[in-house]
């Protein structure tokens, strides 16, 4: 169905996001282009955070699958996260925009 067909809009597309925090897992339906942290927190997923701007790094997550469905690293991530963290697939949830199905886990030092 084309984007201009009645009843369909690419913005209506929802993606499955799974967030692992310690022993718990949360599953969300997230619209295309949504910010991971803001959408998760607004749906009671307790990803730790302080600033929402990429400065504190409290919202660090590791991408388990679906990295190809995310925006590129932001300048904040490249500046704030050490190279070895980036190599492990770590990102800042506040800097992630979702464009497909993904699975993430809260980085070990922040897991409840």
UniProtKB/TrEMBL annotation:
Source organism of this protein record: Lihuaxuella thermophila
CDD domains: fer2
Residues annotated as domain 2Fe-2S ferredoxin-type: 15-110
Pfam families cross-referenced by the UniProt entry: Fer2
Name this polypeptide is given: Ferredoxin
Domain of life: Bacteria
One example GO MF annotation: 2 iron, 2 sulfur cluster binding
InterPro entries in the cross-refs: 2Fe-2S_ferredoxin-like_sf (IPR036010), 2Fe-2S_ferredoxin-type (IPR001041), 2Fe2S_fd_BS (IPR006058), Beta-grasp_dom_sf (IPR012675)
């Amino acid at each position: 169905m084309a984007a201009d067909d009645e009843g369909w809009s690419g913005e209506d597309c929802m993606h499955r996001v799974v967030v692992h925090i310690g022993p718990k897992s949360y599953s969300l339906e997230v619209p295309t282009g949504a910010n991971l942290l803001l959408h998760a927190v607004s749906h009671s997923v307790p990803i730790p955070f302080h600033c929402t701007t990429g400065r504190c790094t409290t919202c660090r997550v590791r991408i388990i699958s679906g990295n190809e469905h995310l925006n590129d690293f932001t300048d904040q991530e490249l500046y704030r996260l050490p190279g070895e963290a980036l190599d492990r697939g770590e990102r800042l949830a506040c800097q992630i925009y979702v464009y497909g199905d993904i699975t993430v886990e809260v980085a070990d030092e922040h897991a409840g």
